[in-house]
Amino acid sequence: MYKLARFKVSSMTVNGKRLDLRVADNFLTQSVGLMHSTPLKESEGMLFVFGRNGRWGIWMLNMGFSIDIVWLDSYGTVTSIMRDASPCRSMLTCPVHKPESASRYVLELHSGFAKEHGIKIGDRLTIPKLPT
Q1: Range of the domain at 58
Q2: Does any domain span residue 131?
Q3: Is 32 helix (H, G, I), strand (E, B) or coil?
Q4: How many CB atoms lie within 10 A of CB 51?
Q5: For residue 89, which of 65, 58, 62 has the smallest C-alpha distance?
Q6: Nearest-CA neighbor of 77 among 118, 46, 123, 117?
Q7: Mean pLDDT of 28-33
Q8: Which residues touch 68 (CB under 8 Å, ≥6 apart)?
Q9: Is residue 22 part of a domain?
Q10: Where are the alpha helices (H) located in the chain, listed in sequence order?
């Protein structure tokens, strides 16, 4: 399944740091996410785009590296942050990380990025214009 996922690409700048993004904006790409991929570089991320606000959960099944997870509302305001989320190997013991409030976007980043670049709850990030 993960070989069939075709991610759109985009970019954004977060606190002065340019990020090249893979965009997960449909069921298949959102289901696959970063599963079985190589670790994110500091200049890379994945942006999940959901059609409506919700408490979108993220799990890290079959990943080989930790990440920072940043939830954003429809205005790009940071609503929750999970730093250094660890991967898991079993569906039975894999936690689902959820935001404290509704979000429309989820940004997955290199582990440590949020701290290194001063991302905090209430910050407003500019969501890039997404390819169609």
Answers
A1: 8-116
A2: no
A3: helix
A4: 8
A5: 62
A6: 123
A7: 90
A8: 81, 82, 83, 84, 85, 108, 109, 110, 111, 112, 113, 114, 115, 119
A9: yes
A10: 27-32, 113-116
